[in-house]
Specification:
Helices cover 32% and strands 24% of the residues. It is of the alpha/beta class.
């Protein structure tokens, strides 16, 4: 563990990648540091939290955050995006329309955040300033950050209709899974989930990541492939999905 990262409350996973588990909702923020550019995955639940994450990430990286990836569109994963002015923002195809939604997307995000305990004023501010992805991933998209190529993969639907995973090569591949995988609680299947396709999304995740990768859930501790495989089987049983 790099002491600088540890002292800042971050967990360094490889030479290029690390993450932080944010308080309250235990949401994971990921960081990938290239020689020229820096990618941040899921920037937190409010502008205040996003600003804190940005300050910490840029101190650790030694340069500004240039790219943001949203793993999906839930409030705790997107509402901090407004703190990253000037960053290029990526998401699964269709996420832009969902978040814009003629105002409905913002209203639903704000209401969901308040329902989960975010202060109404903070929720309103973040919804008003909501950043919508302009780079939309329909299959796979390679980002060149300088010295490291990161793969963004639209592996859903599953947890939502717009699930994006981030694959980072290194001494061990690191896979940021979003809420397709959860370790600190049972996977959450809300009204926007696509339960019968969720096991197949995890099959795609495992196929791209492989058996030796470090899998980073949207909530909880880093897990091995065996955990993801077991969660896939549990979800298949829970949702009555038979093997092909």
């Amino acid at each position: 563990m790099d002491v600088r990262w540890e002292e800042a409350g971050w967990e360094r996973l490889t030479g290029r990648a690390g993450r932080r588990r944010l308080p309250v909702w235990d949401c994971t923020v990921g960081l990938v540091v290239g020689d020229e550019s820096v990618l941040l995955i899921d920037p937190g639940s409010s502008v205040r939290e996003g600003s804190q994450v940005r300050a910490e990430a840029e101190r650790l990286a030694g340069r500004r955050v240039t790219h943001i990836a949203f793993t999906h569109g839930h409030f705790d994963h997107v509402l901090g995006g407004a703190a990253f002015a000037g960053a290029e923002v990526y998401g699964a195809v269709g996420l832009d329309s969902l978040l814009e939604g003629h105002g409905r997307g913002r209203d639903e995000l704000r209401a969901d955040a308040v329902r989960h305990g975010l202060a109404p004023a903070e929720a309103a501010e973040a919804a008003d300033l909501l950043v919508v992805p302009r780079h939309l991933v329909s299959g796979e998209w390679t980002l060149e950050l300088g010295g490291v190529q990161v793969l963004l993969a639209n592996v859903g639907p599953g947890h939502t209709r717009h699930d994006l995973a981030v694959f980072v090569p290194g001494s061990r591949e690191v896979v940021f899974c979003g809420d397709l995988v959860e370790e600190s609680g049972d996977p959450s299947a809300g009204p926007d989930a696509v339960p019968r396709q969720w096991p197949a999304a995890l099959d795609r995740l495992l196929s791209l990541g492989g058996d030796d990768a470090l899998y980073v859930p949207g909530h909880g501790a880093v897990v091995p492939a065996a955990f993801v495989r077991a969660q896939r089987d549990t979800l298949a049983t829970r949702f009555g999905v038979s093997e092909a």
